[in-house]
């Protein structure tokens, strides 16, 4: 195929995935999709389920994980048969397609000339899928049944006819059935639009040309990845980092990688990592692979986003590892574990490709919930994820107050939160001295301090990096650890303030009017030796109040 | 002397375009002079002097589309500014909405336009329900102002949390601040945007402060230069929404001119196309480095409420929606790491420009490819900057960088460059048209700028548009748009109330107040207004949703809860398939725009000028044109001399001083009675 046609087809195919993303973002009911873009769409291989084309605007972690979701449907069809044109499968099984129960996947075969040409898939984070806590981030879960409903791949549409029984089952298992219904319809819209666009393209260029283009694009990603790897020295690098605890037992979890480069292959071995744990920071094997993909894409940004990226990569993940769990081990806090996994890979590549890496980012999504009842008896739940600093990098200091590397989500405006819930922020600020020292300093984390305006409320936090700070790379220093304080009338409170025994994870905080919670999020790790930092940059950091004393 | 002349001025990076229109005689005069870097007002003045034979006495109005604000933002050349804000919130501007510049890669950086040490906090607090929890302390405002002045700040932004819910604290503080601040450069957030969302409001107000000294100084210089000519001509400024405002308003709200220049072009494109009978138009402005597209549907420009000029540089004010990609005549073609032919994002711009300009760039550009293919006349470069283009140099560059590595002939490589560039441009058009559910068959492309008409034929075929319409003066469309714009002033106020608890008397009163304030601003100008139109919209949503629906409200009858509910449901069903009857409805914002309609310009005036008797008489040269892998024997025609109703089949080139039109082999072109060229697919 000539390079001009290939370039044109590449653009057209990516645009189809982008359009599917845009359709869902606009029509979704729930802010986690509509505002935070916690969703993704793509085109997948008819036989292997591999990612062929992925939208640019969707959530990065889904890019890797969707291939497993499509494969789950392909396996189901291979087992049970009965696939027809017009079918749409729906499911959220995290052990057979990755991530956590909140993420619902819809998978639709595209038929050409009576055969499956490819699959389209849509994934979105639904607002509430049952379980013990609203919003499903339960730091004390010990089984997935406490985290929400679990739906295996079932047909939402059979040959184009909606199976409304499924919709009824889903709706009656959610605290927010309207939101669920709206989001599901948004995902159906996106798949319909994708089908229409793809058929137009196939009509115009023909199946053979598109098939050829897809395979060429995959080969190119594979080739580029191999070229990148073969430019690196052979050998094995061993790195480890830790999670504070699993939310149930206060024992640190080791996330270790032994990464081997053999010419143009990469072997990522997680064998030395901790075994499955009681609390919800376990992840499934497919999530582990998807998170590794995200890290590789952040390091090798020019490689096209398709299955070719992982072609030269082998994974070793023991079955008893907390990175390879099966049902019913809890996985609700998967975000914390995959953020650590990405940090570990950055730290591994630091040793062989220092010009490609950056200091670790803040490394936790800090899911904070404050909930109670208003005077009129109505229930309110403020649930949000908070930001922190990005790592210093070869081109400069880390970004202050960025979003997590696994997502592209934005934070809701504090004025919207204050208008919707009986709270007032008393501080919404950068956190000085939180960025890791280095030639290029880590970006600053943030301080969020929130006062309760209603009579009483209960709060919970699901965070990380309370004990082990985000490391710097290439001799850069670490960012500051995550800190959380809350006002308390308890006798053991110091100056009427307490911090969680498990540092960043706690449920059941009782607040009364006028009391506050305060979250101080980590900054990013530094890049390069602190001694190499130019004096005028240090002076400027002092003048602006980014640091209160000279970096070491 | 009767003042019958209206002048439109568009200052671009390379040229300043002038279009003067005698409203009585119906005469149009076009002038192109080099822009003056540093102080644009000097090129501005020489341009209008040239256009009026050095006599401004008959000029009533000078309407200006400016890029001073755009450039100050892109080049980070605004003033040193400060912020005075609520205790606890000095970092709102820098924390943004917790985003990053790109999905892949974590190497983002963001430098806010106001540095942290110039962002000072004062005690005060208003809650979301409008309750004042803490009053301001006048002494602390004065102390903060003094501190900023000592730090050398030229302008200041005042921004309080929840100011949209109750302006009292901010208004009181503004009064004190204006007493102690040494100049007029005080930007008060709720005066600029009394709308919920702290970052967007703070960013818009901060950028206003950042731009104010630069834009106000420029406009003052301009006023001086015009006043020195004793003309008494009034200057008006184009806003990003395509409407115009007084110089005083532009000095107070410079942030509203961020996209002034390109907006004017889209206004002209809309009016020309509408006059010619095309209500659905995709405008394509191709310059040296970028390709801007905008959509006109049912005869109306599409407005967006917010745009980012750069990462984290957010402006929230109504703007003509434009999508920009880095594909211009100067965009550089190269082979990427995967061996694919890529166009841009690097650009040679207009300086040094394409290889064929001979100013030192040796990497091939889109313009070089067009030249090699015979789609540009090497002997007649547009814009009088050069006398001849160096085709041999363009051939060499394409051969070295593209043809040889890909193992292609030079012509084939040149055609590939144009094809890939066309594909990128077509992608940008699809995103704003097909992706939004518009059927391309109902739309026509209107290219303008120097290069748009070279690609319009291909774009039209690729996307499946009905036709392409090339205006009579594509190179000065923005200047023409200045002359065609209406006066406009926009207001917004966050209400954030449940529909069921709406006090409709209060809403009526608020609408009346905002209308009279906006009309007052519009009436400050001397420009002739034929009619006043008021557009009222409510941003509404179901409780729990975050994306609001714009609900147009007619103000000629009682605005009751039921009327508003009916309007909401009608608007909601346009966007989504089903109503959610059981869920309560919230009104987030009230938006109000007052438009002062100016006398319509008869687009036929543009068609004036001497014409030849036949198409043959316009044929000025033979030209070899390469397309679809073969060389054609074709010809060059003088476009402006073509008689009405001419028909020319492709391949052919039509040339004129400000643009070149390339007609593809499968297309034909006809001239209509407005002076436009309409390109369509040949029916076989």
Radius of gyration of chain A: 23 Å
> Could you give the order of the helices and strands of chain A?
HHEEHEEEEEHHHEEEHEHEEHEEEEEEEH
- CA-atom Rg of chain B in angstroms: 26 Å
Oligomer: heterodimer
Q: Which regions of chain A contain 5 or more consecutive residues with pLDDT less than 50?
A: none
Major beta sheet summary of chain B: 9 strands, mixed
Q: What percentage of amino acids of chain B are in beta strands?
A: 25-35%
Distance between the termini of chain B: 58 Å
Tell me the total number of β-strands of chain A: 20
Low-confidence stretches of chain B: none
Compute the number of strand runs of chain B.
Answer: 33
Strand order of the largest sheet of chain A: 2-1-5-4-3-6-7
- Which range does the strand content of chain A fall in? 15-25%
Shape of chain B: globular
Distance between the termini of chain A: 57 Å
> What structural class is derived from the secondary structure elements of chain A?
alpha+beta
Please report the number of helical segments of chain A. Answer: 10
Q: State the helical fraction of chain A.
A: 25-40%
Task: Supply database-style keywords.
heterodimer, A: 552 residues, alpha+beta, five-stranded antiparallel β-sheet, 29% helix, B: 684 residues, Nucleotidyltransferase, domain 5, nine-stranded mixed β-sheet, six-stranded mixed β-sheet, 16 helices
General description of the model:
The complex is a heterodimer of chains A (552) and B (684). By secondary structure, chain A is an alpha+beta fold. Chain A has two domains: 220 residues, no CATH class; 195 residues, no CATH class. Chain A contains ten helices and 20 strands. In chain A, the strands form four sheets. A seven-stranded antiparallel β-sheet of chain A has the order 2-1-5-4-3-6-7. A five-stranded antiparallel β-sheet of chain A has the order 14-15-20-17-18, covered by helices on one side. In chain A, helix 3 packs antiparallel against helix 7. The N and C termini of chain A lie far apart (57 Å). The mean pLDDT of chain A is 92. Chain B is an alpha+beta fold. Among the domains of chain B are: 111 residues, 2-Layer Sandwich (Nucleotidyltransferase, domain 5); 118 residues, no CATH class; 112 residues, Dna Ligase, domain 1 (2-Layer Sandwich), CATH 3.30.1490; 78 residues, no CATH class. Chain B has 16 helices and 33 strands. In chain B, the strands form eight sheets. In chain B, strands 13, 14, 15, 18, 21, 22, 29, 32 and 33 form a nine-stranded mixed β-sheet that branches. In chain B, strand 24 and strand 25 form a beta hairpin. In chain B, helix 1 packs across helix 7 and helix 9 crosses helix 14. At the A-B interface, helix 1, helix 5, helix 6, helix 9 and strand 14 of A face helix 3, helix 7 and helix 12 of B.
